[in-house]
Amino acid sequence: MSREVCTSVLTPERGVGSDEMRTPEDVLEMRRLHQLGWGTRRIAARLGCSRTTVQVWLRRGRWRRAARRRRDGVLTGLEEWLRDRLVQHEGNADVVRQELETLGVRVSLRTVQRAVEPFRRELRAAVVATTRFETPPGYQLQIDFGGRQVWIGEEKPRVTLFVATLGCSRRMHVRVFLGERQRHWFEGLESTFEEFGGVVETVLLDNARALVKSHDAATREVVFQDRFLAFAKHWGFRPQACAPYRARTKGKDESGVGYVKRNGIAGRRFSSFAELEAHLVWWTREVANRRVHGTTGRVPIEHFVEEEAQQLRPLPTYGRFEQVRQLARRVTTDCSVVVDTNAYSVPWLLIGERVRVLVSATKVCIHHGASEVAAHPRSPGRRQRLTDPAHFAGVAGAEGRAIRRPRTVEESGSDSLVRPLAEYAEIAGGSW
Fold this sequence. Notes:
The protein has 432 residues and is an alpha/beta fold. It is 34% helix and 18% strand. It is elongated, with a radius of gyration of 40 Å.
């Protein structure tokens, strides 16, 4: 609008003259002239605007940006429908857009995203929100795995931390492995029960493939692995899987894994895997279970002794759950068989032969025919080599590798094939 032209005609769409946009300097000038005794008509003529505009700005007392009137969009009035569809399609705005197209409403993906943004925030809050509840003594144990790279010697492999936390006292048990297979879950649980001196009623876990075949998010129907069900029956607990994509329902142990990473092993170096294991045993006993817990306000080990220990079920009298695997292997030229990336030595006379390997939780036994030819303790690590010096007795060469020794003339049984070079020279008619 020009300063020379005074616009006093207001359109119905713009409403009153207060919607006529003025700069902060214009408003300050209006107030200054008004304080000097000027009338609104004179001020309007001076500034080139309508008298109504001057009156409105003087009534407001200060300048502020005029609010734009928002026009109704294509999706106005469909808020409840959009909310329902966004929840149904798990927050996917593009699927909502496709469904709108089938109803004859063609809009861009960005338009749908802007329309459902308030509902998307509600969905995110619903996912994060967790209701904490306390469990009675001896009722629940929460278990989980977490990965972390740790310096061991001059290497930095990725180790996995098995963390078990009692729901009532918050007493923890920690094991470290170099994998997250079913046997690692079993070994972690068995050592937990033995450490605590009893078994809980339920074990809460996430949906790891080693333990859970399937978990329907809608019906909450869970199908556990057969061997895990046998393991649970052996120890006498009831397995319970948290809702898919809702690991926060297992919050006590989720926070426990983070606590071990940040406090137990963060910034530390270890000379060997055994030293790492020993450190975590000490740290769990002297630090984790002797601190004042932030939620309960009590020391976990004291809380366990006073209230939870007597509520645990007794350990089974028939010992550990034996998980025995039978494998077929061929003995390699370095006199060993490989099981789970670890090499176990075998008598060198069996090089090239097929053998039967029985793998239990603590032992690896190797059979040839009906005889046991080798037995080793099972290695907890990866790419390790376990050897028995007796398996290399009589082997020529170094580091236990079988090397074919050249046969002597006496061993060949005849010296007729060994001739001096002069005889070949006479036959060829020349010299070498």
